[in-house]
Amino acid sequence: MGESIFWLPAASEQGEQVDHLFFLLLAVSAIVTIVVFVLLVTFAVRYRHGSKAKRGKLPNLMRRELEIGWTAATAFLFLFIFWWVSSAQLEGYSPPPDALEIHVTAKQWMFKTQQPSGVREINELHLPVDTPVRLVMASEDVIHSFWVPAFRFKRDILPGRVTQGWFTPDKTGTFHLFCAEFCGTNHSEMTGRIIVMSQADYAEWTAGQPQGDDLGKEGAKLFVAKGCSGCHAPSSKVHAPNLAGLFGRKIPLADGSIVTADERYIRDSILQPRREIAAGYPPIMPSFQGVVSEEDLTRLLAYIRSIGKETP
Amino acid sequence: MTDAAAIRSAEAKEPPSYLKAGRTVASWLTTTDHKRIALLYFGSITFFFFIGGAAATLIRLELISPEGRFFTNDGYNRLFTLHGVIMVWFFLVPSIPTTFGNFLLPLMVGAKDVAFPRLNLMSWYLNMAGGLLVLACLILGGVDTGWTFYTPFSSMFSNGYVVLAAAAVFVAGFSTIATGVNFIVTVHVLRAPGMTWFRLPLFVWTQYATAAVIVLATPVLAISLLLLMAERLFGLPIFDPAHGGDPVLFQHLFWFYSHPAVYIMVLPAFGVISEIVTCFSRRRIFGYTAMIWAILGIAVIGFFVWGHHMFVAGMSPFAALVFSFLSFVVAVPSAIKVFNWTFTLYRGQIYFEAPMIYALGFIGLFTTGGLSGLFTASLPIDVHVTDSYFVVAHFHYIMVGGSVSAFFGALHFWWPKITGRLAPDRWARFSAILMYFGFNFTFFPQFVMGYLGMNRRYHHYAPEFQIYHVTSSAGAAILAAAYLLPMGYLTWSLFYGRKAGDNPWGATGLEWQTTSPPPRENFVEQPRVDEGPYLYHPDQVAPFEEAPERRQQHDPQGKSDPTRAGMEE
């Protein structure tokens, strides 16, 4: 961190791609700028008032063809850039299924992170190098944004909605984490560190942390404590969906549409159960808005995710 | 102004100029003359420009040290919010339309006044009402949401005077709507005989397009601010996710206005530059029709790109692609305009007086700003640079490097028409060049530090960015000097400047065919138009020599001794 004040090397696979695109665009911009400046200066000098340069009728060709020519050229250039950068963007849209899942809860003015092993950190996040990392994020209050400049990664963290993003760190070291969306008084102090370690160091670090239960296990306890199991357990007499094997499945809704049971859907179903009702079930579930905190939601989600692979 | 001038105009048996058609304060405050209203606006936006500028100065001063020096975190947040709110809604949006647009639009189309003179006056009073609200907000303690008022921070969490600030913007919005309606109707119904649509100067076209954008977009801003105020004051659940609301909805509504607002700020600048570049290269504008289509294209497509402000805010990948695509498309007409201005110089007879220096500076800065827009339109790059100083630099290049340079260019170009006096050209050229370099010095480092990870709206920052902030602050000092200088020499020219004559630059355009300053009714006789715009040389022929009868060469006044110039009067 901070070896050079003139450049920040990218420290993730995606970041290196962004840099390539950036330099491509920089080259295009430099060429356009130079052309415009050279033309401006040449014309300004050559055709200054009273100079001897030849003037005369503009060739007719100069008027229409030139206009059409550079309109078309600009349009093609811009469309080409659009196509190039967007295809790069789409390629990296979906995270690999085995990505390390990190939960982030943001609040004024800190980031709370939780590893799959249950280790919790505040304003810090330890990661293994060369491993895809998927962030599952929610905010407890206002909009925040998770920005790691060295990874060229940024994603807003919204209240009332799960947002996700992913990257693959490929350099070890310590990197800045900033909150990028203005969030109030101490916005500029809502910063942290991302510590990327070699895989061996990461394993050692994880082993050295006080062992909390992992998220899924904590969620399983909550699932009972908050009363979810009263209806959703397989043995329950209430007509409610069994949640084993649910995660990631396509669910038909009462209104005829189909949703994927992802983090967003499950979260919404806990907080606003009457919004998207699964077909064939009566809308009887009460809202858990205000009953479960953001962090508890994270645990419940992890639990439901963990039983997603079981067959019901 | 002076008695001698009054005698001279009486001798020439011309009607008195608009400046002399009533001398009491009441005659100004109740005027319906578009030229006087332009000057009222000129006073108010200059006042707000200096308040917003003072805030910018304090921001740059504070950021010299990574830990800050003078302000608390809250103080700093209020400072940049104040800077944004005032500069956007009380300077940039009204700047060129309400001053030069108001003054010149009727003159350029050959009308006596705008279509609704009293509505025009009301627009200024609405702007003043909004201005008073924003000043009240400032005096009571300010607001800390940023000029974007993002929910749920603004509606549920902020402890500043959000409602007051939102109300100020709400009220000021109606003043720009009034101006917009006035311009649209004026261009439609008050054009002089023979002034067809394709004989209109491009300045009129840009004002017309701007007015259309204002009338269509500003109501959406009003709606979103009302919803924000309803949630904050009465707790109506609209954006609050705890009650099923969607905070991103506010961003969509807000940017549906605020991205077109960028074109409200920059389209009039395009018009100014087209007038200046043609006049000082003694050439017809290259591609007049293409320029008109570019203006209209920007105005229309500009409505469909708002989503590019929200690429990281949780948007479906398809929506992001569409907005990215349209953002590239809207850049095409802007590029066309740059090429057309450049080729207007080709085979011209170029004069380098102050307005032209400002215009050339505009082209340079706008090109840089526009190209940096390609970076922010690209999805993967925007994800990295959004909310960073890269974006701050990008929009300052467009709005300050672009619009403010054009504003100063317009000020120097039409100053003789507005006041009847010439500004000292040497001083003016000096401050134009100073502005160009000061601007780059201030904002170019911000591109670099933004890409390296410097966050926007950060009071405290990581120490490795200090070198960039110090450079930027040093540049800001130069820029401030370049903005203050004209205050001095333009005021001086009011008293000691040479008489301008009707058409000191030898420009085409109806506004130059009346006296400087024009009489209350603009023209003694109803002008008739039988030719296209920008006839600086006969059709199809570029000038070997520019037509001397059209242009009275004047001495740059910087050379002459001010005391002697004073005695000549």
Automatic annotation (TrEMBL), chain A:
It is found in: Cell membrane; Membrane. Binds a copper A center. InterPro entries: CcO_II, CcO_II-like_C, Copper_CuA, Cupredoxin, Cyt_c-like_dom, Cyt_c-like_dom_sf, Cyt_c_oxidase_su2, Cyt_c_oxidase_su2_TM_dom. Keywords: Copper, Electron transport, Heme, Iron, Membrane, Metal-binding, Respiratory chain, Translocase, Transmembrane, Transmembrane helix, Transport. Its cofactor is Cu cation. The keyword Electron transport applies. It is a multi-pass membrane protein. It catalyses: 4 Fe(II)-[cytochrome c] + O2 + 8 H(+)(in) = 4 Fe(III)-[cytochrome c] + 2 H2O + 4 H(+)(out). It is an enzyme of class 7 (translocase). This is Cytochrome c oxidase subunit 2. It comes from Consotaella salsifontis.
Automatic annotation (TrEMBL), chain B:
The chain crosses the membrane at residues 38-59, 79-104, 124-143, 163-190, 202-229, 249-273, 285-306, 318-336, 357-375, 395-415, 427-447, 467-490. Keywords: Electron transport, Heme, Iron, Membrane, Metal-binding, Respiratory chain, Transmembrane, Transmembrane helix, Transport. GO terms for biological process: aerobic respiration; electron transport coupled proton transport; respiratory electron transport chain. Residues 547-569 have a biased composition (Basic and acidic residues). Signal peptide: none annotated. GO terms for cellular component: membrane. Residues 507-569 are annotated as: Disordered. Residues 28-530 form the Cytochrome oxidase subunit I profile domain. GO terms for molecular function: cytochrome-c oxidase activity; heme binding. It is a multi-pass membrane protein. It is found in: Membrane. PROSITE patterns: COX1, COX1_CUB. Pfam families: COX1. Belongs to the heme-copper respiratory oxidase family. This is Cytochrome c oxidase subunit 1. The lineage of its organism: Bacteria, Pseudomonadati, Pseudomonadota, Alphaproteobacteria, Hyphomicrobiales.
